[in-house]
């Protein structure tokens, strides 16, 4: 049993090298975003897929308040760029399509491309569907002691396979 913390530590280090990718569907335009491998990023991905009705603010951002809060690690942002996906407070998801700054946010991630973003979001409220980019399996270790075991991303052993999210099963990272 002593080797489990070492194995989990190694797995988590491997996971940090593999950022989570999601897709945003905005009025039929699909844009890929890379989500930070943080407690906040993982909690956000655990909510996916979801569709948010996002309101316009300041001619540079769209926002939506979630029903419940996410973990935070807010920092003052002097400059925010188009394509930044942020969390204001603990429940307000903000997608920036223009430049901004001067508030504290927890970074969720960043769009990999902002080409056509301003046109896709338009001037008013929009509906944005967030989903995990691809399902599949990615091998992250071949340690035989992992056979038959499942863990969440915090290293806790699972006794049932989750219906969605990211977890480790038999030494492989699984995204559902």
Structural commentary:
The chain is an alpha+beta fold and 176 residues long. It folds into 2 domains: 3-14 and 140-175, no CATH class; 19-132, Cyclophilin (Beta Barrel). The chain is 15% helix and 41% strand. The protein has 3 helices and 14 strands. The strands form 2 sheets. An 8-stranded antiparallel barrel has the order 1-2-8-6-7-4-3-9. Strands 10-14-13-11-12 form a 5-stranded antiparallel β-sheet. Strand 11 and strand 12 (157-158) form a beta hairpin. The protein is elongated. The protein starts with a helix and ends with a strand. The model is unreliable at 9-18 and 135-142 (pLDDT under 50).
Determine Rg (CA atoms, Å). Answer: 17 Å
Query: Strand sequence of the main sheet, in spatial order?
Result: 1-2-8-6-7-4-3-9
Describe the largest sheet: 8 strands, antiparallel, barrel
CATH architecture assignment of the largest domain: Beta Barrel
Highest CATH level, the class of the largest domain: Mainly Beta
SS elements, strand count: 14
């Amino acid at each position: 049993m002593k080797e489990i913390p070492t194995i989990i530590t190694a797995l988590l280090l491997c996971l940090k090298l593999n950022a989570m990718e999601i897709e945003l569907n905005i009025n039929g335009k699909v844009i890929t975003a890379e989500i930070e491998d943080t407690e906040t990023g993982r909690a956000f991905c655990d909510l996916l897929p979801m569709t948010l009705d996002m309101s316009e603010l300041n001619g540079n951002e769209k926002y939506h308040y979630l029903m419940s809060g996410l973990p935070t690690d807010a920092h003052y942002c002097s400059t925010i760029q188009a394509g930044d996906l942020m969390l204001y407070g603990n429940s307000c998801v903000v997608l920036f399509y223009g430049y901004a700054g001067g508030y504290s946010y927890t970074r969720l991630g960043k769009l990999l491309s902002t080409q056509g973003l301003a046109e896709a979001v338009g001037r008013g409220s929009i509906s944005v569907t967030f989903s995990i980019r691809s399902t599949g399996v990615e091998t992250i270790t071949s340690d035989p002691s992992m056979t038959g075991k499942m863990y969440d991303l915090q290293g806790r052993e699972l006794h049932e396979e989750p219906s969605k999210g990211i977890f480790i099963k038999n030494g492989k990272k699984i995204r559902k």
